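Exercise 7b. Backbone tokens:
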């Protein structure tokens, strides 16, 4: 997208004058646009607004400040008085960040350890990036990252790697069924466009096995981990995702599947269209906004209304903490920052709310979470959870 168009949309968001179609356009570019370009533009706008306010009047500033100090389910240990003393130094930048990024936690000031607190060591655990390994039909493997640009030829299928994404293109009628495997390690994510035009986003520690060309009466892929799917509609060739004994059947739809081995459930969430969840002899159809949950221990399948913001947060570079318990958050951090979580205290029982950017360093995220009856220490590749 043109850089000036991005500036325009972000400036209108700061002003609060975005039209509905512009808001949709902006949300799409936050997901699909080159992340380095977005980071550059957002940083420039926040710095400009912080030093020379153009868009935020006093009333908006006060309202946003109240929003910041209300995020106390995560930051209950910070008193209102302490926050006000820090206000002059960081508030306007924080307000600009909320308006642009939709988050208060991103610019929350670092907490000073109290007496007896364990300081987080300054290890440089960076957030995840675009990285994966592609295994070809002949067993050869290719390492993929954000910077690579290449074309891989497999029979009549061309695989284009560009800007952290793989795209498959048919160059004729393929008659031989062969499979590729895209493996995303811990500390990474990757995007994929399948031969039929369907789009897949893979989260950290995930794996997708799929044909290089869809031949026959159906399109079938196999998932481990977490993936978000936007399926190209082909009524005569239904799409199926197989995951841990389940089968998700679709025609054309948007949905997310979370099926990590270290989670207690398999969650399939429908954002748009319709899907059938097939579990043995049972078939359960989902409507938009619903989530099917299969318990690993009991194999019981239930359906509930989903928190779509929480389900979609990872694709827009956030950890969404809407009634989430700390162990569930730490499992996400473990996969995204490729660290091991070690408990030296009882697991806290309270749930947390708020939103944290996935672009922060690990130490900053842990500082945001400290104070909920726990403290953290980073030792090499381990995060030690300690009692308060």
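Sequence design result:
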């Amino acid at each position: 997208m043109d850089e000036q168009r991005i500036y325009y949309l972000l400036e209108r968001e700061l002003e609060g004058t975005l039209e509905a179609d512009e808001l949709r356009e902006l949300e799409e570019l936050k997901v699909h646009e080159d992340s380095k370009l977005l980071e550059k533009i957002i940083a420039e706008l926040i710095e400009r607004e912080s030093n020379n306010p153009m868009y935020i009047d006093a009333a908006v500033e006060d309202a946003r400040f109240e929003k910041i100090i209300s995020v106390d389910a995560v930051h209950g240990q910070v008193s209102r008085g302490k926050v006000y003393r820090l206000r002059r130094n960081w508030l306007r930048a924080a307000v600009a960040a909320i308006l642009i990024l939709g988050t208060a936690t991103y610019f929350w000031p670092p907490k000073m350890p109290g007496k007896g607190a364990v300081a987080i060591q300054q290890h440089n655990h960076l957030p995840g990036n675009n990285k994966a390994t592609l295994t070809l039909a002949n067993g050869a493997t290719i390492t993929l990252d954000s910077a690579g640009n290449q074309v891989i030829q497999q029979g009549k299928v061309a695989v284009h790697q560009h800007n952290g994404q793989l795209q498959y293109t048919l160059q004729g009628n393929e008659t031989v069924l062969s499979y590729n495997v895209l493996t995303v390690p811990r500390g990474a994510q990757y995007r994929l466009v399948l031969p039929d035009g369907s789009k897949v986003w893979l989260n950290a520690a995930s794996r997708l096995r799929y044909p290089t060309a869809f031949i026959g009466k159906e399109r079938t892929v196999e998932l481990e981990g977490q993936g978000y799917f936007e399926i190209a509609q082909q009524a005569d060739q239904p799409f199926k995702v197989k995951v841990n004994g389940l089968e998700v059947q679709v025609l054309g739809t948007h949905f997310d599947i979370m099926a990590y081995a270290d989670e207690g459930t398999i969650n399939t969430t429908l954002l748009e269209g319709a899907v059938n969840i097939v579990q043995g002899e049972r078939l359960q159809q989902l409507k938009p906004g619903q989530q099917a949950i299969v318990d690993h221990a009991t194999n019981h399948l239930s359906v509930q209304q989903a928190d779509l913001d929480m389900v979609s947060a990872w694709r827009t570079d956030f950890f969404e903490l809407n009634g989430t318990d700390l162990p569930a958050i730490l499992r996400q951090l473990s996969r995204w920052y490729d660290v091991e979580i070690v408990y030296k205290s009882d697991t806290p029982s309270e749930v947390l709310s708020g939103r944290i950017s996935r672009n922060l360093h690990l130490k900053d995220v842990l500082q945001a979470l400290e104070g909920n009856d726990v403290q953290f220490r980073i030792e090499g590749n381990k995060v030690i959870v300690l009692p308060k």
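Instructor comment: Residues 318-387 form a domain with the Phage tail protein beta-alpha-beta fold fold (CATH 3.55.50.30). Residues 272 and 382 are 39 Å apart (CA to CA).
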